[in-house]
Please model this.
Amino acid sequence: MGFEEILEEISGGKGERHRLTHVEVIPARAAEIVELPADLHPLLAETLSRMGVKGLYRHQASALKLLSEGRHVIIASGTASGKSLCYHIPVYQELLENPSSRALYLFPTKALAQDQLRSLRELHGKGVVSATYDGDTPQEARSWVRRQAQVVLSNPDMLHYGILPNHRLWGGFLRHLRFVVLDEAHVARGVFGSHVAQVLRRLRRVAALYGSRPQF
Model:
């Protein structure tokens, strides 16, 4: 059954009441593709080529340009439009050029963090050390993550309960913190959003204590 048949099935009048009251079709738009930046690290360029990435969408190129200028960036784009590459590329570039740099990725769920960890390892290969740090991380592994991981994938609650109160244990990581990524930021709304905003303010204050001013 194709999409049109499914739509007709759930909106048609087979029952006493229609289950859909309105259907709107948004016309497709042609993608705007631009060339990859000329200053990409050779290993990063090779990795993107291996993944079949020959160019960037316009919003990806704009995000990379703003980040290269030291700006904070927020991206709103459609599903499967390559939002993740908007932060994967600059983070990978930074880590290749400055291996001591660090990045913190925050996700709303542990499952999403695990999915992104697999994507990161596919992108980075053995060139970058990435790891999750959440409630499922074994106690014996946490010290290793703090000391060795260049990219830490976590969530706002773990940042609130496990990282910021123990910032002295994270001093080396925070001192070199270069990027903070808040994925699926649109879910941070209402009371939860207020909580996340305050946690991020604390993160910026603690990072400044160690001399770093990360980009978001």
Q: What stands out?
A: The first helix runs from residue 3 to 11. The domain at 82-209 is CATH 3.40.50.300 (Rossmann fold). The longest strand covers residues 177-182. The chain has a mean pLDDT of 88.
